[in-house]
Write a structure and sequence with these properties.
By secondary structure, the protein is an alpha+beta fold. About 30% of the residues lie in helices and about 25% in strands. The strands form three sheets. It has a seven-stranded mixed β-sheet, with helices on both faces. The chain has a five-stranded mixed β-sheet with strand order 1-2-7-5-6. The chain has a two-stranded antiparallel ribbon with strand order 3-4. Helix 2 runs parallel beside helix 3.
Length: about 350
Amino acid sequence: MTIECPTPHHEDEIVLLGHGAGGRLSAELLDSLILPAFGEAGGPLEDAALLPGRPDLVMSTDSFVVSPLFFPGGDIGSLAVHGTVNDLAMRGAWPLALSVSLIVEEGLPLAELRAVTASLGKAAQDAGVPVVTGDTKVVGRGAADRLFVNTTGVGQRQAPLCPSAASARAGDAVLLSGPIGLHGTTVLSTREGLGFESDIASDSRPLHRLVRALAPLGAAVHVLRDPTRGGLAAALNEIARDSSVAVEIEEYAVPVPEAVASACDLLGLDPLVVANEGCLVAFVDPAVAGDALAAMRSMPEGAQAARIGEVVPDGPRGRVTLRTLVGARRIMDMPLGEQLPRIC
């Protein structure tokens, strides 16, 4: 009898769509090919990096390939700004400047390009960060999918914040700043014409002001992470892995909007792995958990913040466990590949 392995084979040495999903295939590609090429190995993979010799400055870069370009709650332009500002914020940094590069496919209507750039400019202005440099390239028809955007951001850390994916500790409270699943289900519904977009909208928004509200708690804020690709499940698994801790989450405490739950149920998706663009996960010292929740809830971006779990001292290191509504426990695995491609 031949037993088939459910995971993809790699004998053909090709890139799979799942390699860009932020899950196990992404980690495999980074560890085996990309990081060794740059002389990097080991250590946590953060949302943004401290500049060598200037630990007060933080840098992040990201490319956005979302399809469609426009969706309820946002578009590729505002998403590019929010995504990069948020990556800086997850290292406790305030954005100082952005660069923007556009890869435009021949045939894109100028009206659409104008709408995207106007939205990007407004999002940057609203976030209080200037666009200081950039680049534009045009490629032939079929060489890209309408429009790709790359943004790079530089920020300055807000002392005494020093969050890192490797800094979670036993006993930490796990906080979530808002509902999950809105961005991924909105983009998918709009792309496929499923109709859910009339009930939901992307949560795309900047989070640096929410992080600034946590700044008075200083070093008691151990980890910040925005659960984008791979959703909450991927973010928690990355933190558990990089901090070598066991995390337990209460299913009842995770805020999932009813429309998101309905869409995921129809499509056979788990809301825990659906991408978000406007919420964050915080691991904080349990002594300040109440203060952290109050600080989050004082901001519009964190009005629905909730405590969803803790770092347990006696669990298997690197593992995330979900306590279900009926009291059972199940392992919350790192997603393997791409459930919802082209959502950021």
